[in-house]
Each structure stands twice: as C-alpha cells, then as structure tokens.
Design brief:
The complex is a heterodimer of chains A (about 550) and B (about 575).
Chain A lengths: L1 H17 L11 H16 L12 E2 L6 E2 L1 H13 L3 H26 L11 H4 L3 H11 L1 H7 L4 H25 L5 H18 L5 H12 L1 H5 L1 H24 L4 H10 L6 H13 L3 H6 L2 H15 L3 H6 L19 H14 L6 H15 L14 H20 L4 H30 L8 H11 L6 E4 L5 H9 L3 H7 L5 E2 L2 E2 L1 E2 L2 E4 L8 E5 L1 H4 L6 E7 L5 E8 L1
Parallel strand pairs in A: 3-7, 3-8
Antiparallel strand pairs in A: 1-2, 4-5, 6-7, 8-10, 9-10
Chain B lengths: L5 H19 L11 H16 L23 H13 L3 H27 L5 H17 L1 H7 L4 H18 L7 H14 L3 H17 L10 H31 L3 H9 L8 H13 L4 H6 L2 H16 L2 H6 L19 H15 L1 H19 L14 H10 L1 H10 L3 H33 L8 H9 L7 E4 L6 H8 L4 H8 L7 E2 L2 E2 L15 E6 L9 E6 L5 E8 L4
Parallel strand pairs in B: 1-3, 1-4
Antiparallel strand pairs in B: 2-3, 4-6, 5-6
The chains are: A alpha+beta (about 550), B mainly alpha (about 575).
C-alpha cells in the first residue's frame, strides 16, 4: 500500500508540474531561451553558440557563465521534442518530481515509521512524516514555481537532495556495521557523484554541496581507523570530479556571478567603518571595534535573517514575479503553524541525525546571503527539502494529535478543508491570473515578435530589433532555430555587449531608436512614436491586452 | 519575599545606575533637537506652566489638546509642564519625565518578573530572571531612544505595565484591581492605542491567570462555571470603571477632529486600493462567482494586515536595524540588542513547555499591541507598536532559565567561568557599541531628523526682530512656527493670542512663515530678513549667517537685507 501511495503521489506531482507547462508560465524567460539554444548548439555541433567545445564548468552564454549541467540535461528532450518550451522545461519538471521523492526518503530516514505491521492501513500511511513530506512538496508553491520552468537551481536541488539521501544511507551502513562493506562505499560513491552533479548545475551549490558532503562523511570519521581508506578514496574521487571547478576558481567562469551580485559591492560597510573610526578618533581600539569586518558580518546576518521574514515565507513571497506568484508566499499561510509544530516536534525528540537539517539550512543560506537582492527564493531553493521535511513532520504531529481527539474526523475534515481551500486559491490564481498579470516578466511576446519579423521580412531588408525588454538575439535564434554554425561563425566579427550579440546576419539588436533608422523594425510602442512615416505591420500585445511590440517598416 | 542576597541587590542598583546613565546623560542635547511633536509639546508645556492654559488659551485640564492640529492627549503635557515649573523650560526638562519613566520601567519590569517567577522558581533564579528583565529594559535601544524624547506612547505603555503589575498583585488581594484600572485609565489619557490594548489584557488575564486557578478547587462543571463567572465580576466592574474613566475623551469637543486626524494616515482601512486590486484580479480570472469570492477586497485587506503584522516580527527590525525612521532607531541597532534574540527563542520554548498559559497571555498582549501599528501602511513602526515592549521583555527574561539549567549541567568550574566570561564579554561589547553609536554617532547621523538648526534660526532671528521690518522664514516646514513660539522671546499671552484661532500659524507680527516672494524683491520694504535653505538666497544680502549641519555642510542661510542698500 505504501508503495502504491508513493507512486500515486509521484505521478500526481508530475501531473502538477507538467500540466499546461507550455503556456504557464506564459513564455520562456531569456535565461530559459539561452539554456535551450546553447543545448541545441551542443547537440548540433558539440559547441556552444560562442564556439566553445563541450563546456564543462560553465557556459559563457550572455557573459554570466551559467553552470553547465542543465544545458546537457536538455539535450535528450531536444531529441524528442525539438527546440521548444517542453524541451527546456522538462528537465526541471523531472528534477521537481525527484525533489518530491527524495525529500520523502530523507524524511523516512530521519523519522522512520514506528509501525511494525507490513501492510499499514491507509490512515497510518497518511500520518507518516515521509508521506506527508512528499505531499507537502508536491503541492508546495515554492517547489512548483521552480519546477515549472527551466531553472538550473531546481536541477541542482534535486541532485543535492538525492546526494544527501545517498550519504545518509552510507552513514547508516557505517554506524550499523562493524565491518567494512562495499555497499557503504557504493552509497557514498553515488552520493559524491550526485553532489558533484549538483555543483555543476548551479552557482550556489558549488559552495553548498561540498560542505554538506563533508557533513555526510562524519560517520566515516567517527570510525576513521576502520575507514581511512574509504575516506581517502572518496576525498580523491570528489576532488577529481570537482577539479575543473577548483582549477578555474579565480576564472570569470566561476567567480563572475558572485562579483556581479555581491551584497558588499556597494562598499557601504567600508564607508560606515571609516565614518565611525573618524568620528570616534582613529586609534587601535576604534580600528578594532569598528573594523569593516564587523560591518560585513552585520550585513551578512541581516541578509541571512531576511529569509525568515514571515511575509516572504507565508504571504507574498519573493518580490521578483518569476520567483513567486505574489499572491502567495513560498508556503501556504497555514504552513506557518505546521512548520512550528514540525520544529517543536523535532526539538522535543532531538536525535543526533537531526543536526543535518539545521546544518543544511545554515549552509544553504550562505550563498543567498552574500548576494543581493535578499530575500531570494531562487538562491535559497537548495534548502527547500529542509522545510518540506519539517512540514511533513509538522503535519504528522498535528494529524496524529487530531486523530486521538473525540471528534477527530470532523476536525480532520476541517483541517483538510482549509488546506484544500488554499490549494484551490493558489491554482486558481496560478492558472488564470498569474500568466496574464506577469506575462511581461516572462518576456511574453518575444516569440510572436520573432515569428512576425521572419514572416514579414523582405529579401535583403535590414531588420532592427530593440533591446528594451532584454536580450532579443537569443530569442531570434531560438525561435528561428538558426543553425548554430552560422552563429559560431560570427563570434569573432560581430559587435557584442559583454557576450551578447548586437547584430546577426542583417538583423541589428539596438538599444534605442531615434527616428533615423530604416528597414523592418520591432520596438516598443514608445519608440514607435519616433517614426511618423512608418508603415505598421503588426502589433503584439501582452496577456493583459497591452501592446508591447510594434513591428513596422520605415522606407 | 525572602531576604535577597546582597550581591543581587547590588546588581539591581547597578542596573538602575546603568539605566540612569543611558537616560540622563546628555539628555538635553542628544537627540540634537526637538522634532515637531516635541516642539509642540514644549510650547504647550511652557505656556501651561505659566498660565495653566494651553497655547490656544484653553484650560490645561482638557482631555485633548488641539496642539498644532494633531490633537494630543494630556498626560505628557502635564508632566512636562510640572517639570518646566520646577526646572524652567528647556529640552532637558521636556524630556525629563520620559527619562524618569524609562528608569522606573526597569524597576517595574523587575517586580513584574518577580511576581511571575517567585513562587515557581528558586529565589535565586527568580531574582536572576527579574534582574535580566531589568537589564534588558535598561539597555534596550527601543526603551532608551524613547526614554530620551517626549513621545507620549512611551508613557502610555509604561502605565499599562504598571497596571499589569497591579493585576498580578490582585491575585493576592482584589483591592489592587482599583489602582490597576486607574493606571490603565491614565494610560489611555497618555496614548490613544492603550484603549485597544487594555480590555484585551484584562480579559486575557482573567482567562489565563484567574480561571485556571479555579480548576483544582472545583468538582462539577456547573460549579466551575458559577465560580468562573463570579471571579469575573470584579474584572467586569473594573472594565466598567475604566470605560467610565476614559469616556471624557470621547466627550471632548476635540475628539471627532482627533479621530479624523488619526484616520488621515494611510491605512488598510482605506478600501479603495484593495477594491481596485480585487477588481483587477476578478477581471483577469473571468469575473465569475468563484473569482468574486476568492479575490474579495476583504481577503486583500486581511492579507495586507497580516503582512504589516509580519513586518513587526522581522528579525532585522527587532534585533539588527530597527525602524527606518531615524527618530525611532539609530539605524545600526534593532529594538533590542542582538544578545536578546537567543533569549527570546529560549524564553518562548521554555514557557511553551512550562507555562503555556502565561506564554499565551504574553503572545496575545504582543499581538494586540501590534494592531494599532499594523493598520497604517507604514510598517514596521517602533513607536506605534510600543505596547509590545513589556511582553517581549518578559518573554526574553524567562529565556534565561534554560540557559541557567544548561550552565549548571557543566561540571567544570573552569568551563563555567569561560562561558560566563564570554557571555559577559559579548553582552558588554554589544552594550558598549550601542552606547558609542548612540552618544557619538547617532547625534551626527540623525541631526536632520531632529530638526537641527531650527532653534538656531529662531535665536538668530528673534534677537533682530525689532530691528527689521519683516522676517521671512522658509525652512520648508509649515510647522516652523512651533519652534519660533517655543524659543522666541514671547510671553505666554502673546502665544495664546497668536494661536487663539489658528492651528497652523502662517504669520505672526512681522514674521512670515513662508518663502520670500523673490519676484517682489525690488519693491520689498527694507530692512528685512530672509531665512532659507543654504544656497537658496536669490539676491546677495547685506550680510548673512550660515548655519551648518552636523556634517559641517551649510544647511540654512539667514540673509539680512539692510536699509542702506
């Protein structure tokens, strides 16, 4: 029965993630398009669109050096579906389903069921923390948001969760058995591979995965006399796999993103420190007491705790509409009480193995807290399973408590009624309101614009597309399925902004128009006003019916 | 109470001394100036101390002072008037009642905690918990900042704490309910939001402190209900007395205007933005019955209220950065110092396990205290949420117990000594940093928030008032007249005459509180003075005086346009 329920939950979570995937979110965001086109380029030529041969650590992309794994994970889907929304988003969907499954397995590991009966009743099964963890993850607004579009972080989180589960199994084998077994090494080996895969999938997990890996091998260190060879082998194995990242640690392909988003890049901490020292008299004591590192530390703590803001977690979520639907937080509002119940249950029945959860939480928050903006739902996604396990435990505690009360059925019905109402509200908003209200945030209209330009372009006519909404070159290649060889051939000759192409075979991607340009032009209605003598070709509106792209011809 | 150990008594007085240092040192000069509410209070108190009438010539014994149109409650003005009567009008005298209240609150919280803990824990532990509460109160940036300014809210919450102490004492003798009600009435006369807090506090106290004590004594449910209702009678009576006591406020002719002023603040009660948002959601989701229910304006209002509430529970607001307004926070510290965070968590968990009803009472107090702060849209707000100070400090103080238990489990004295040393070091460091920040950095950074320079303008201009035909003052604040009337060389009767029919004064004798009309410069009758932001004098004066801000930059310019040019 348990297995059947697990399969049903997994299938259902797959359904929740795949339903209307091509239309909600309403279009591919530019990062998704970049992932898709570079994967396409690899598939066709073995090189990315800049011409780099099978990039291992990161893809240059727009100059933001995206970690590589997600690009490669798209390739099998490209073979099946071609270059479209499905191919780009499906790896994330499967990663999302894997997160559901492995979060449940971790909950099962941490809170093994007490029932000795092989065939548990349905009620018993639905009181189990692991089953409830899977259900909570399946319906989680946070998990769903990142599972329904092409986010590298979702894949990284799936690998991380699976890797942690593997490590936990390895640790258990070590602690249970007094003799060395190959099974132990196998668990740990798989865990290392998965954690390394996680490090190759997302910037933050380059930091998180190795540290969590070290925590997972603590049982080996506890029996280091018996396992020193294993420790050495795993260490060498992990280092070899990570060596490409470690070797390029000072290279832009690894450090660029951190530099770009650093929380300390404004230098405010140094200004504050200098101000204090200057005002209080510059001497050894003030230099020590008001050293800039204190101010860095303070910024870091502020950023860490911003991720526990109640409105962020339970009411409105991340301010960026691509990361949260804005009408809900990362969790449903009532999850506040469930998480508290889970945390209290955990504290009350504390075991050594539970340390993993808070260590995971703390390590997972570091990368998001040394960057801006905060709080950030995307960069903290690797800690999602921690919350999910707590939710599962909290639900289990609450439902078990209710099941022992006099009117348990009635109360359970009421509780499920409240949960169901929230799920309905979420999905109603997600399916009907979110795509329309935030279609601009998902770069809706680029696909239609590119198709229109292609359809209406005359032989040899010059084409201008404005960069007002972002990075049109990549959309152009993606939706015209441009042969990557043609793009690679222009790598050294075309003008670029960072690594973004500003022209391609007669198409110019221009920042601003001034009324002097000629040819087929795609721009916002605002820039269209510069051309009084233009002949309108097509107007493209967003999902609220507001015109966003104008395609017109200036002779 | 048993006779306490001498060391603990010394510790108590040491904390009081610390509390006094934090509140009295440089009281007149830090914060660096009076902001408009204080300036208005200064003016009212100055006039009341001389004539027993307010700045408008109304009796001082009125329940609502019109002030400059913000309708202030009377208690703090009365206290400041008394202080002015004794010490003369000064910034120090204005803030003195608040500072005394701040120090007294460290004592009151001590006794509250003693009452809550004395019969539950050992004498030593009870003292330790109470001393900790007293210490937190003494050094909490929230309490310190507001102890050093004339904010009515601080007095209001202090009186609620005193009333709560009396409630605790009433468990031994019902006669304490009378002073409790009187203090609560006085609390309402100090700060409007106390009227929301007190009834909830009374009912919660009866529910969580009185009723549970009946359980062991009562055998049948009927008898229990009877006893519970009987025990509620004195509370109901006291609530009635309280209501009667505060009703003169509602009867005041100024009450409708005061409510109108308070409701003019942008708040979630304003339905229009929510209805617009609701309409948009309905529109995009098909405008059917389901969408009309799911996106009803009430849901959106409730969501906004919860978000505003959530702002007040933000860790950074509580422990790291505080309120965005530099008058309410130093910007470098939260409402409490960081060492209080583990105490709050530990206190919450410990009370959840050991005294859940007490915890529930404190949580309700905290929540109801946040209601007046969460309805307006500018959240989090340290001033409006002030009624939450006492319950939070109580919660933190009980957080000492689990640490104390853990500490005692450590066998080695050396380890204990090291832990103690580190703990004292960390707390000492934080207190010292706060003191350094508040007394040396904050005055510079916050000067403009405290209208630094206004007093200097008045002193510079007023001494020349007779020599010049006209004075134009435009520091871009239409309340500047408050500073002029407060610091200028005016008799109380002159103030009352000027303000008799005005809430905002635009002109007084030869002083115009508005921008000089530069287009009329050629025909302006000389000599005259123009006061404006630095660099805004459009025509070079005969001579000028520049007033500088705390960073040494020119802030105001006083231009003297003499007759001979």
């Amino acid at each position: 029965m348990y297995k059947k329920i697990t399969i049903i939950i997994i299938l259902f979570s797959f359904f929740l993630r795949v339903y209307a995937l091509n239309s909600i979110p309403p279009s591919l965001y530019w990062e998704e398009v970049a992932l898709g086109y570079d994967a396409y380029s690899i598939l066709k030529t073995g090189r990315d669109h800049h011409g780099h041969f099978l990039p291992l650590v990161a893809f240059e992309s727009f100059g933001d050096y995206k970690p590589s794994f997600y690009f490669y994970s798209i390739i099998p889907f490209l073979l099946v579906f071609g270059l479209n929304v499905w191919a780009v988003r499906l790896p994330s969907v499967f990663a999302g389903v894997a997160i559901v499954y492995f979060s449940g397995k971790i909950a099962n590991f941490l809170f093994p069921t007490q029932s000795q009966v092989k065939e548990s009743s349905l009620k018993e099964i639905f009181l189990r923390p692991d089953v409830l963890t899977m259900l909570a993850t399946a319906f989680s607004p946070w998990a769903l948001q990142f599972s329904r579009s092409g986010w590298e972080v979702n894949l990284a989180t799936a690998f991380l969760t699976a890797g942690i589960y593997g490590g936990l199994l390895g640790g258990r084998e070590v602690l249970r058995k007094s003799v060395v077994q190959n099974k132990t090494l196998m668990y740990y080996g798989v865990s290392v591979i998965l954690l390394v895969a996680s490090a190759y999938s997302y910037h933050a997990t380059r930091f998180i995965a190795p540290l969590i890996g070290l925590v997972l091998v603590i049982p080996l260190f506890q029996k280091y006399k018996l396992y020193w060879k294993h420790i050495l082998a795993l260490g060498v194995f992990g280092l070899i796999l990570l060596s490409p990242i470690l070797l390029f640690i000072t290279d832009p392909s690894v450090g660029h993103r951190l530099e770009e988003t650093s929380a300390f890049k404004t230098g405010q901490e140094v200004i504050d420190s200098n101000f204090y020292i200057e005002q209080l008299g510059s001497n050894v004591v003030t230099k020590l007491l008001f050293h800039r590192y204190w101010f860095y530390g303070k910024t870091f703590i502020i950023n860490v705790f911003s991720h526990f803001r109640l409105d962020f977690l339970f009411l409105s979520g991340d301010k960026i509409p691509r990361h949260s639907i804005q009408y809900f937080g990362l969790f449903f509002p009532t999850d506040f009480f469930v998480l508290i119940a889970g945390a209290l249950t955990l504290i009350k029945n504390w075991r050594k193995k539970y340390h993993l959860l808070w260590i995971w939480l703390v390590i997972g928050l570091v990368p998001a807290s040394i960057t801006q903006p905060v709080p950030h739902a995307l960069r903290t996604l690797p800690i999602l399973p921690v919350y999910m396990v707590l939710l599962g435990l909290g639900f289990s505690t609450i439902l078990t408590f209710i099941s022992r009360q006099r009117f348990s059925k009635l109360i359970t019905l009421a509780v499920f009624g409240i949960l169901f109402a929230q799920i309905i509200m979420y999905w109603h908003f997600y399916l009907l309101a979110y795509p329309k209200l935030y279609s601009n945030d998902w770069q809706y209209g680029h696909a239609q614009m590119v198709r229109s330009v292609e359809k209406n372009k005359l032989e040899g006519e010059k084409v201008l597309i404005t960069r007002e909404y972002g990075r049109p070159a990549m959309y152009y290649w993606f939706y015209t399925e441009t042969d990557p060889r043609e793009v690679q051939a222009e790598e050294l000759t075309v003008p670029k902004d960072q690594s973004e192409f500003l022209s391609f075979k007669g198409v110019t991607f221009i920042n601003n128009l001034d009324g002097t340009q000629k040819g087929l032009i795609a721009s916002s209605p605002k820039q269209r006003q510069y051309f009084s003598n233009a002949e309108d070709v097509e107007s493209i509106s967003n999902l609220l019916g507001e015109p966003i792209w104008m395609i017109y011809r200036v002779q | 109470m048993n006779k306490p150990h001498m060391k603990l008594v010394i510790a108590f007085f040491a904390i009081l001394l610390l509390s006094m240092v934090f509140r009295f040192w440089q009281l007149g000069s830090t914060p660096v100036g009076l902001y408009w509410d204080e300036a208005a209070m200064y003016l009212d108190a100055k006039v009341v101390s001389q004539t027993f009438k307010d700045m408008h010539g109304h009796s001082a014994f009125q329940t609502i002072f019109p002030s400059y149109g913000d309708y202030k409650l009377p208690i703090y003005i009365w206290l400041a008037s008394l202080s002015f009567k004794l010490l003369g009008a000064s910034e120090f005298a204005l803030r003195l009642p608040s500072a005394i209240i701040g120090v007294t609150q460290s004592v009151v919280i001590f006794f509250i905690l003693r009452k809550l803990s004395e019969k539950v824990y050992s004498e030593k532990l009870s003292w330790a918990v109470s001393l900790l509460g007293s210490f937190i109160m003494a050094v909490s940036p929230w309490s310190v900042l507001f102890s050093r300014t004339g904010f009515e809210g601080f007095t209001g919450q202090f009186l609620v704490s005193c009333a709560f102490l009396c409630l605790l004492l009433s468990t031994q003798s019902k006669k304490w309910l009378i002073p409790s009600s009187l203090l609560a009435i006085t609390g309402v006369y100090s700060y409007y939001s106390v009227r929301f807090v007190w009834p909830v506090l009374m009912i919660s106290f009866w529910s969580f402190f009185v009723v549970p004590k009946l359980f062991p004594l009562i055998k049948s449910p009927t008898q229990f209900i009877k006893s519970a209702l009987f025990s509620a009678l004195p509370f109901i009576l006291c609530l009635l007395i309280w209501w009667m006591g505060i009703s003169p406020i509602f009867a005041s002719p100024n009450y409708p205007a005061s409510q109108q002023f308070r409701l003019s603040t942008s708040s979630i009660m304003e339905a229009t933005p929510f209805n617009l948002q609701s309409n948009m959601y309905r529109e995009v989701t098909g405008n059917n019955i389901v969408s009309r229910v799911l996106y009803h304006g009430w849901f959106l209002q409730l969501k906004e209220l919860l978000e505003n509430y959530a702002d007040h529970f933000d860790f950074n607001f509580l422990f790291m950065t505080g309120d965005n307004n530099l008058r309410h926070s130093t910007g470098q510290h939260g409402l409490f110092l960081l060492f209080c965070f583990p105490l709050l968590i530990a206190g919450f968990l410990y009370q959840l396990k050991k005294s859940p009803l007490q915890l529930l009472f404190l949580v309700i107090w905290w929540l109801v205290a946040l209601l007046p702060a969460s309805v307006p849209t500018d959240t989090p707000h340290a001033l409006r949420s002030f009624n939450a100070l006492t319950p939070i400090v109580i919660m933190m103080s009980f957080g000492l117990i689990p640490f104390y238990i853990l500490f005692n489990r450590v066998k080695s004295w050396k380890v204990q000594r090291t832990i103690l040393f580190i703990t004292i070091g960390v707390i000492g460091y934080q207190v010292m940093m706060f003191a350094a920040d508040y007394f040396f950095i904050y005055p510079i950074k916050s000067a403009s928030e405290w209208q630094q320079g206004y007093k200097d303008i008045v002193l510079n201009v007023d001494q020349n008032r007779q020599k010049y035909d006209k004075i134009w003052i435009n520091p871009e604040d239409d309340r500047f007249f408050l500073w002029y009337l407060a610091y200028g060389n005016l008799e109380a009767s002159e103030v009352q005459t000027a303000m008799q029919k005005e809430l905002i004064l635009k002109t007084w004798e030869n002083v115009e509180f508005e921008e000089f009309p530069w287009d009329r410069y050629p025909t302006a009758v000389r000599p005259f003075i123009v006061v404006t932001r630095a660099g805004s004098l459009q025509i070079k004066p005969t001579h000028e005086k520049i007033l500088y801000d705390s960073f040494g930059q020119p802030k105001f310019e006083i231009g003297f346009y003499d007759k001979n040019e």
